Amino acid sequence: MDIITICRDKLPNFKEKIQIFYTEHLHLDEEIRYILDGSGYFDIRDKDDRWIRISMEKGDMITLPAGIYHRFTLDEKNYVKAMRLFVGEPVWTAYNRPAEHFSARKQYVKFLEQTV
């Protein structure tokens, strides 16, 4: 685990990082976040490819499966402190959409097809 603080004073290259976080992407590993302080939004796609906005605040935790398209943004407070949980060495590589060729994406789409 590690802790990330996302705000102008704490995150180097704040504007660029916020743009990267907000660009729709996926990861090849699960993404687990526990909000320690502040707030923000995770946007994910439903199985009909529509956006769902998830409001996150102190005490909330989210697990995004490998292969799910998502993005993150701050709310009007422009501050969040989050614990990032992972197994083994963290891999922060984000693959911007489209990224359909990855096996993690194919497995996630197959999972969606099985749900009714």
UniProtKB/TrEMBL annotation:
Reactions catalysed according to its record: 1,2-dihydroxy-5-(methylsulfanyl)pent-1-en-3-one + O2 = 4-methylsulfanyl-2-oxobutanoate + formate + 2 H(+)
Keywords: Amino-acid biosynthesis, Cytoplasm, Dioxygenase, Iron, Metal-binding, Methionine biosynthesis, Nickel, Nucleus, Oxidoreductase
Name this polypeptide is given: acireductone dioxygenase (Fe(2+)-requiring)
InterPro entries linked: ARD, RmlC-like_jellyroll, RmlC_Cupin_sf
Cofactors: Fe(2+)
Protein's GO biological process: methionine biosynthetic process
EC number: 1.13.11.54
Sample GO molecular function, one term: metal ion binding
Organism: Fukomys damarensis
